[in-house]
Amino acid sequence: MTTSTESRLSGIQRALGDRLVPLAWANLVANIGIVVTGGAVRLTGSGLGCPTWPKCTDESYLPHGELGLHGAIEFGNRLLTYVLVAIAVACWFAARARAAEHPLAVRLSTIIALGIPAQAVLGGITVLTDLNPWIVAGHLLVSMAIVGGCVLLIDHVNGPTRASSPLPVRRLSAALFTVGWAVLYLGTVVTGSGPHSGDLDSRRTGLDPQVMSHVHAWVVYLLVALTLVVLWQSRRLGLLTLFRAARLLLVIELLQGAIGFWQYFTDLPELLVGIHMLGAGATSAGITWVLLATRARR
To answer: Could you tell me which of 188, 172, 263, 290 has the C-alpha nearest to residue 222?
Structure first.
C-alpha cells in the first residue's frame, strides 16, 4: 500500500470518527424506521409478498409482476436492510477511529451491526414458516433490543455527565425497564392474536385478542405508575438527567396509550397500528434511557 493511499484511508477514518455521534443517532433512527416499514408489510397483508427467502421466489431474488404490489412492498422492506447495514458499518468504522476515547463504542457498534444480518435471517424464518406469529413476535423484539443497544451507544459517546443514583432509585428504574419489556412483549401477542397477521392465510396465536388487549393495558398502567414514581423521586432528589428521561418516557406512554385506545375502539385501522409500532420503538428507547440515566457517567 502506498503512502498516499494510507494517508487517504487515514483521512477517511478520521472524518468518520468526527461523525461518530450523528452516526450513532442515525443507527437509532434507522432501526426504529425498519420497525415501521416492517409493520407496513404486515398491515398491508404483504408478509408473504415474497413467498420464500433469501430469494423472493424460487427462481429469482427480485419480485416479478405476478406478485403485484405485495411483492414490491415486501421486497422494498428487504432492501432497506442494506441501508441499515451501510449505517451500521460506517458507525463501526467511526467507533474504531475513536476507540481510545470511547472503548466500549467498538463493542456496541459491533453488536448492533451483527444484529442486522441476524434479523434478516430471522425475518427469512418468519417467511419460511408462513408468518408464525410467535416467530414474528421474536423478530420484532430483537429489533426492540437493537434499538436499546443504539441508545446505549449514544449515551456512551455523547451522554451527559452524571453521578450514580441512590440504590432504591436504580432498583426502581430496573423494575420499570422490566415492566416496559413486558409491555413490548404483550404488544406482540396482541398483534399476533388480531387481524393484522401479515397475510390473509397466516395463522394467529389462537388467543382471544380482546382478553390479551386488556392484559396488555393493565401492564401499561403499571408501567405508567412506575414512571410517575421515578419522575417524582428524580425531581425530589435533584437527578436532572433521570428526570428528563422519565418525563420523555411519560410523554411517549401517554401518546401510546391514547393511540392504543383509539385503535381499539375503531377496529384497528392500519394507519393507527403503524403509528403505534413507531411508538413501540420509542418506548424501547425511552425505558433504556431511564435505566441508563441512573448509572454514573463521567
So the answer is: 172
The predicted-structure confidence for 261-287, as pLDDT tens digits, reads as follows: 887 777 777 778 778 888 999 999 999
User: What is the distance between the terminal CA atoms of the chain, rounded to a whole angstrom?
Assistant: 40
What was the pLDDT predicted at 3?
59
CA neighbor of 134 nearest in space, from 189, 183, 187: 189
Which ranges of 159-208 does DSSP label H, i.e. alpha helix?
167-193
- Position 175: which residue type? A
Q: Which triple of cell numbers denotes residue 247?
A: 418525563
For residues 134 and 212, give the distance between their C-alpha atoms in angstroms, rounded to a whole number.
14
How much is the pLDDT for 198?
A: 45
Q: Where are the alpha helices (DSSP H) in the chain?
A: 3-18, 20-43, 68-97, 103-128, 133-158, 167-193, 209-237, 240-265, 270-293
**What b-and-e string marks burial along 153-188, b requiring 16 or more CB atoms within 10 Å of the CB?**
bbbbbebeebeebeeebeebbeebbebbbbbbbbbb
Q: How far apart are CA 116 and CA 84, in angstroms?
A: 7
Of 199, 66, 25, nearest to 127 by C-alpha is 199
Report yes or no: 69 and 45 within 8 Å, Cβ to Cβ: no
Amino acid at 34: I
Backbone angles phi, psi at 247, to 5 degrees: -65, -45
pLDDT of 199: 47
pLDDT at position 153 over 90? yes
283 pairs with which residues across the strands? none
Contact 186, 216 (CB under 8 A): yes
- The answer, yes or no, to whether the previous bond of 54 is cis (omega within 30 of 0) is yes
